What does this fold into?
Amino acid sequence: MKEIRVGLIGFGTVGKGLAYALLAQKERLLQKTGTTFILSAVADIALQSLPAEFSSTRLTNDANEIITDPEIDIVVELIGGMEPARTFILKAIENGKHVVTANKALLSVHGREIFRAAAQKNVEVGFEASVGGGIPVIKALKEGLVANRINFIKGIMNGTANYILTQMTDHGTPFQEVLMEAQRLGYAEADPTYDIEGIDTAHKLAILMTIAYGLHVNLSDITVEGISSIEPIDIRFAKKFGYRIKLLAISRNHGDHVEARVHPTMVPEGHMLATVNGAFNGISFQGDTVGDVMLYGPGAGMMPTGSAVAADVVDIGRNIAYGCINRVPALSYLPEHIGEPTITPMQKLVCPYYFRVTALDRPGVLSIITGIFGKHGISIQSMMQDGRDSEEPVFIVFRTHRATEDEVEKAIADIDALDVCTAPTVKIRLLNPE
Amino acid sequence: MKEIRVGLIGFGTVGKGLAYALLAQKERLLQKTGTTFILSAVADIALQSLPAEFSSTRLTNDANEIITDPEIDIVVELIGGMEPARTFILKAIENGKHVVTANKALLSVHGREIFRAAAQKNVEVGFEASVGGGIPVIKALKEGLVANRINFIKGIMNGTANYILTQMTDHGTPFQEVLMEAQRLGYAEADPTYDIEGIDTAHKLAILMTIAYGLHVNLSDITVEGISSIEPIDIRFAKKFGYRIKLLAISRNHGDHVEARVHPTMVPEGHMLATVNGAFNGISFQGDTVGDVMLYGPGAGMMPTGSAVAADVVDIGRNIAYGCINRVPALSYLPEHIGEPTITPMQKLVCPYYFRVTALDRPGVLSIITGIFGKHGISIQSMMQDGRDSEEPVFIVFRTHRATEDEVEKAIADIDALDVCTAPTVKIRLLNPE
It folds into this structure.
């Protein structure tokens, strides 16, 4: 009987998930692989003891004990953040350990260094849990869709942001109120910045783009806008137009350049992504061979993420047992075939837009505003006015045909400069129909 | 540079898909695997010549030439049906060839014989394309969700049936009319029996259950009802109750026994499976570690299915190149751990039901019918009556709480025996909330 020894750094939520998954599935994994997966050691800086179930697992406060333990085959890093996670992973690789991590922040910034080090030492780096929680999205992209040029990536990749938008949509509650409730329920962290400002989603998009296109995409390549400025009124208008507002990661592969953006997006209500609600994730790919595929499931959480980490551990364990390390390249393409991305400048983006203009309800205002859109080549598809026959400001809402970001920004500047406009115009991009 | 030589039996729709996928993705696959995948030979009984792009591929009318060719590594069987597909596959295995097939009908009936032969010769059998067309559902189940006990399988696995039901739902058109239109458009075959009677869906469910549970499930284990008796009126009533009617494959793993059924099912309109429309498939699993995951995409078609077949070819090619054949067991569990299923008797099934009773609109009729339900322990959740104040028969429609199939059949027999009931009662099962 073969044995694979796992050393875990970080016994937080996901760490516990992995530990319990390996424990509960021990017999099943043996029946599937002929191998016993043993959690040999746990390093956690703050922990005094492990739960009773893990009596045969060694606990240490020093991650280096795990990294240097000659008996350990796979080091699982689940502490998150940049340092000391980066150092631990690099040292583990240096010591010839295979590594599994869920650390999207680290990979989207220092991925290149880590994957180069791993290639040099011929060890594996598994990161299924870094995107889409329990959904096997990395494996689908690297293996299931191997015979495809990926044309698009579109997805809801952050459960917290999607939970907040879903609550706002269902109950009309303002952002701040839903956020506080989400924090109370444990759906949002005390510092929710990464989740609500789209940064976590951008981390994940960078990872997906890298393996989908064979390009070294970094966090800094991605234009990011969050959801904190979304107001219930825009969600209501979106509904009237037949749309839902979702925080989407969107990338289109133009061949010589690639789009890379994360922002609130109006999605047609019949679209599969519009039906992904609550804390769930939905990630879709369009491949030139397969067409459109979407994977849906829990994007976070102790056991779902533990499931993905365990899948990586098993994958690497099989490769150890069969002597076929790096049978599938870590980043899908062989290292020598991964190039540098040219990112489509945001100014060149072309998509339909939603605008909410706040203006005094005076005769001729609509004509002036539509005149400005016309001057910038922006064609209106439909308009709604929330008029009140008074001198109070009203909302005039537009849905446009496809326009360039460049012209849109100029048009908004012109509109917001009008005396009759009493608040900045709100702009939300629509999902391109394709 | 490594080379993998593929021999293809059957140059029909899916065969062409594989051939074009391997051609178009040749350079990409080389960049991902370091291996060139070559379509060496095609056998097709009816073909006189291959398209010009395949000038370096040998064409034969005799599949045995491919099966016995010592240069061929992987034999791809895409002729479908029982014979001669079974004989070709067994001979290929006998000759030490790895096999890839999309033949769900064959695997769900003769899978055991084929997988046993493959295990004996230590060759691989890939069958990703047999379920869910281009969606990498088999790989997700065998690898991505490896650390899970699968509790449920639920899915829309036949694009033709789903297309027909979607058209009936959107336009209120009767079944026969939509079927003829689907045949005209090429969405349904000249003989649509397998698709509309649920048999194709049952083939796929048998395969999924086998790998999900580690049990040898056969087509004959599955209770199958098709959609040909679904009427627009039931779709309309379902909508009023907040449901969509879908042809679902459903299996629940009770541990000591497993449900195995395919039938029209009322799915709550908020459920992800209710939003899978047209010719698409949606297949969901519930794992004890991960929770609910769904995969969505094109369930059929030349290129989507070609994508899945190509993924299997690449997977096996990697194993050949790295010398790790059967790194992942063909049926997920190692052969010695695959057991015999005990199928839950359909009579013991418990779920909510929809009934449409056709009765003369006389005083006291409702009381008699609800009395019969009560006698059989069936509790009504809601009722709608389409009364017309006349002697004409009317529809009385019920949605029940969970009841056993056994009692439901007795109740229907009692109701249909009433003088006032002028047509057989229609019964549609609801998706269990879980």
